[in-house]
Amino acid sequence: MPGRLAHGRLHVLLALNSLLVVLVSVNRKSHRTLEFVADNQFLRRVEAGNIVLGLCTVLLYCLVATHLVRDSPRRRPGAPLTLSVMFTAGVYLYGLSLGDHEITNYLHGRFCSQSLPEICRIVAFNDDVFSDVVFLAGFTVLNTVVMVTQLLFPTDRTPRPWDNVLIVVNALFVGAAITANLAFEKAEFDPFVIAATAVLALTLLKVSPRQPMLRYYAVAYSAGLLATFVLKAR
Question: Between 212-233 and 8-29, two packed helices, what is the crossing angle to 10 degrees?
Fold first, then answer.
């Protein structure tokens, strides 16, 4: 298979992203992660795991964006600075959302399930609204940076058949995660953000149809939305 691929390194990065998607799902759904991290019970393993996996996600975004720039024969002197600023802003928002959500989600679920005194109302707002908005903002900026990077730094190597197969397979892991979030969990703002990202990905793919990351995003987000629509319509 290596001889039939035009984008071997990119596939490795996308496979790692698929692995992260699986690990996040296992971390959230496994009963073992409900155990406490330390004797003082300040956090459970699920929240600590999400924080660590969040760091891995950001590092992977950085590796993908760096790979796209280095893999392209095109050079744009002004673009890296602009994209770096956007990426830094996205990382900050993403990290801020995890720091707020994982703590307040734990406190909300453990101490505020039965009653809603004033402090629980504030904790619940941070858990369900504020952290979600900040997360979506950071996540959208990071995804946009990667897509714009691919557009501004296109590869000159046409994807081969096995490239397209692997791109679709890895994209479907993300699509499944999107479906699980939209179809089976409470999602207020998420559908609009996912839809906007899908439209952006499809638009950029139309502009530059041979770029692998644009195809990856278009498949992942379109498949996630389509599957959600089908499940909701049942």
Answer: 30
